[in-house]
Write a structure and sequence with these properties.
This protein has 2 domains: 124 residues, Response regulator (Rossmann fold); 88 residues, Response regulator (Rossmann fold). It is 58% helix and 12% strand. The chain is built from 11 helices and 5 strands. The protein has a 5-stranded parallel β-sheet, with helices on both faces. Strand 3, helix 3 and strand 4 form a beta-alpha-beta unit. The longest helix is centred in the middle third of the chain and has 28 residues. The protein starts with 5 loop residues before the first strand and ends with a helix. The mean pLDDT is 87.
Length: 228
């Protein structure tokens, strides 16, 4: 049990939302609203100056990522201040960025009063749950990462079988050089470049050299082999 109230800062640039959150939390005897602000800059200043326990942080305020930047600064300066994101879940990438910055939980802006109170209470105890929507987002992200990892490994196995000439040809194509430009640069016959491209396509089991180039660019293969 806490001997002191949970000190809360509310940060949202929409006045009705600030008023709603203030009303909800203001009825809780165990909570003290120490400041209600409308920007990320103010949130940082207030949280650090008043040593809040929890901040309810909107993500989009004076800038689309104001909340993310504010969370990052608060957590870096005082990790004991627990940040709870306020969100509509319109942008998964921004929400992920908030968790990466140091947020420990989120509440939807239209959440029930009991959900908001519980989120603040749990955050103050550093015991916030991983809610269903965030859990799903993380699972989806890991599925993408696993897929990308498998594609990278498979592609690297093929790239290691390329000759230096074939890899160089692919790099030139990735830089936007045309086949005719490469022929002139390398002083080779058109039949030679066709042979190289044919060998590359066989190794990748692809029908288009453009598809091969785009695949290598997407996976960052040319950066991996930058010195070769």
């Amino acid at each position: 049990m806490r001997n002191t109230p949970i000190r809360v800062v509310i940060a949202d640039d929409v006045l009705p939302i600030r008023e709603y959150l203030s009303m909800v939390l203001g009825h809780e005897a165990e909570m003290e609203i120490i400041k209600v602000v409308g920007s990320g800059v103010e949130a940082v200043e207030c949280c650090l100056a008043f040593q809040s326990d929890v901040v309810l942080m909107d993500l989009e305020m004076e800038t689309p990522r104001a909340g993310v930047e504010a969370i990052k600064k608060i957590v870096r300066r005082n990790p004991e201040i627990h940040c709870v994101v306020l969100t509509h879940f319109s942008d998964d990438e921004t929400v992920f960025a908030a968790f990466e910055a140091g947020a420990i939980d989120y509440v939807l802006k239209d959440a029930s009063a009991s959900e908001i109170v519980e989120a603040v209470r749990a955050a103050a105890s550093d015991a916030s749950p991983l809610r269903n929507k965030v859990a799903k987002m993380i699972r989806d992200e890991f599925r993408v990462l696993r897929s990308e990892k498998a594609a990278l490994v498979a592609t690297l196995n093929i790239v290691y079988r390329l000759t230096p000439t074939e890899l160089s040809l692919l790099r030139l194509l990735a830089e936007g050089k045309s086949k005719n430009e490469i022929i002139q640069m390398r002083h080779i016959e058109s039949s030679t470049i066709r042979t190289h491209i044919g060998n590359i396509l066989k190794k990748f089991d692809e029908s288009s050299i453009n598809d091969v180039v785009e695949r290598l660019k997407r996976l960052g293969i040319f950066e991996i082999f930058a010195s070769k």
